[in-house]
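Anyone? Bumping this.
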Amino acid sequence: MRYSNISGFLQIKSEVLRTRLTSACREVQGETELKQRHKKTAITVVLLTVILTSVATNNKYLAEPRNRNPNSSPEQSTFTGSKETYLAESEHIFLDSFETDSGNWVYYGKAGLEAGSLILTKNETFVFGAVKSKLSLGENWRVSFRYKIGGGSGGDGIAFLFGVHSLEVFPLGGYLGFEPNESEYGVVFDSFYNPELRDPVENYIALVEKGIEQKLAIYETVKTEDNLWHQVTITTVKGNIQIDLDGKDIISKKINYDSKYDGFGFSASTGKYSNIHMIDDFIFLRMDPRD
Ligand SMILES: [Ca+2]
Ligand SMILES: [Ca+2]
């Protein structure tokens, strides 16, 4: 499919989403008992519209359909509504709003779904939670998601993991629930100061390689523990990774990611101090770089 077709497809999808949004908003006004559910739908639709429109108008990259991967077969998912349409027509786009189990994640530890979000840990000390996707990233990709951390005494954080070989060991506390030898890279959202792990401050986001101690790039922010939802987009094309937080480019870095190990997932842990660690509205697109 050529870029113009992708763009047209996404524009058509945007129109469909706007129509659904309008419809959902009317129902929110009219039917109080369905109010909360439609409000969630409306928020999700707005989010997807913004992201997909940005992809359609992006000058640097375009998405391209790939051969069917049995692991990413749309029929295996349990998505409903607008999300089902996307998977059926464009299998290189994967979305999960965590309203029900999509069947595309393996859960470890305390990880599970609750109130329409992925909960990695609740407010408990010395626990971990992790998920590993059944999909693979490939060489060039973009993921976006929302996260929320807080509500507890203050530890330890979330990691988005990529270049994952396996997930078998889940170290607690400052290690954020992932073992250095099992994940090549991570984007960590840390909320507890561990000088022994080379944390620069208490609250920061970092791109790390082979464990949390080796920080390739750091961005200090209190948004890793304010108990509010934040939007993250991570794009990796030809080994160049860019991380956006709430629409702002916070980290750009050249890495040696070669997709030999292209598993991905999330982990989180607590120690003596704890927080609630949540993820929502996960979107994954395979990208095709334009020369
Ligand atoms: Ca949700
Ligand atoms: Ca830490």
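Late reply, but here is one note on the structure posted above: The pocket of calcium ion (ligand 2) is lined by residues 156, 174, 190, 192, 194, 197, 199 (CB under 6 Å).
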